[in-house]
Amino acid sequence: MAGLYDEVPTVVLGPVSRGSLVGALTAAAVGVGFVEMRKHAGSSVDSDRWVRRTTGPDYQDRHVVFGFRRQLIRPADRVLMVDDWIDTGATARTARALVEDCDAHWLGAACIVDGLTDPRLRHDLPVRALLDIRQL
């Protein structure tokens, strides 16, 4: 399966706030661009310049609108999302949809701690982590 395991990203996508920190550091280490995925992104004045999606419920049963400026991810880009923790997969699934809205190639999600309870998500997204929550 092509994806996170054998392709080099051209862009790292990091959700605010901790994903922005870890993602920017990852992008700098790999030598590629970084895009911050913002909450409640864009204004009504230039809404056509933004790509936005609403998450499914997160670990606190909230739904969050994420987005970024459309021109920051191009169709030829290979995008890796980086975050500190993955729990329900809602943010990663939303990131994947945003990347696909830009006609770019989704590589997967990388995080520090994997707290997923549904093992299918590890394969479907795909997800790679430094630690499993059971190790903490």
Automatic annotation (TrEMBL):
Coiled coil: none annotated. Keywords: Cytoplasm, Glycosyltransferase, Purine salvage, Transferase. Its main location: cytoplasm. SUPFAM superfamilies: PRTase-like (SSF53271). The keyword Glycosyltransferase applies. It is found in: Cytoplasm. One of its GO terms (cellular component) is cytoplasm. The keyword Glycosyltransferase applies. One of its GO terms (biological process) is purine ribonucleoside salvage. Belongs to the purine/pyrimidine phosphoribosyltransferase family. This is Phosphoribosyltransferase domain-containing protein. It comes from Kribbella soli.
